[in-house]
Amino acid sequence: MEPSMNNNTENLHQRKVKLQRDKGIQKANLIASGFQFIKTFYTLLRKVPQTDEEAKKIMRAYMEEVLHGIFFFGSIHAIPVKPEEFFPDGHHEDFKNIFPEPFEKYNTHLPVRTPYSVLLVLVVKIKSTGNMNEILQLLTETNTFLQKPSPTDNTVWNSNDYCFDSTVVSQSYFKDPQTDKGSEMFWGASLACKGKVEREILIYISCIKAWNKAVAYAVHYAQTGRAIKFPNYVYSEAFRSGRRNNSPYESIPPCLKCVSLFHNIRFIPQSEEEHHAAWPYGNCAEAESFSKLLNTLSNVLDDVKAVINGAEEPFTQEMIDFVANCQKSAAQKLKSRKFLLTEDWHFFGCCTG
Asked: In the prediction, which pLDDT does 245 show?
């Protein structure tokens, strides 16, 4: 039995060594991709005309939100990353002097969206005409910079290495049947954070704070077969990034989870039966997109129905009974990653845009 026991001990040791090595690689990728995102976003931000103090204030808030989000995800990583570790050669002091709040609040305040969702808002603002093709083109160009660690480094991260970009973006709008005019487009991004625990935490936070409560209701109760039904004439189209082969975004059908959650949406293209989803409910870009639409268009929100056991009924405030459960689940996950959660549930950022 001794040789067998020795072999088992050696195998266990090798597995532990490999696990630690893999975690070390994940931490290095998180640091590298975090710095690359900060640098790319800061460069993009400086291209935006800041004509008055209000515009400067908004742009500053975007940069602070990106920094805070990256620092937050670093702090709850399996091997925690400190804010200064994201900056080479001590450059963190420059950012800390200009943007002190993210450095002070990353482990006491929760983000309300991912850094990529903030980037998406900025891109839409830059392409202020709302032209869909122009928005997707600028996103494609920006993704290229996110994927390259530096101008002199030809290495490009694959989708499993890079930690902060979204694979899919989605836009939705309402077309008024009386005038046949479409509303503005409301853009959303799939959850851009690495790790099962991190993704679960962000979905809980989104249900508590970020998403429209009708969308949060559908996501939270998805496993019980509940859903929400939109009024007629709401359209949605999702686009998958072509980052793997440096190609443009491509239009894709919704996954079956989105179809089951959000009834009566006119998806473009229509859903395909084989388009199953391995990701959790709420991961998709449509959740953020529809939330923005409902938060802006009260006439659409007023006509949203809850679907319970196949029956429709008006969506009411009384149905928002899930927040406490989301807080409890999020708290357990956050405490497992040693986040300094308080009873007051402090959030960083206000979902502007």
From this structure: 67
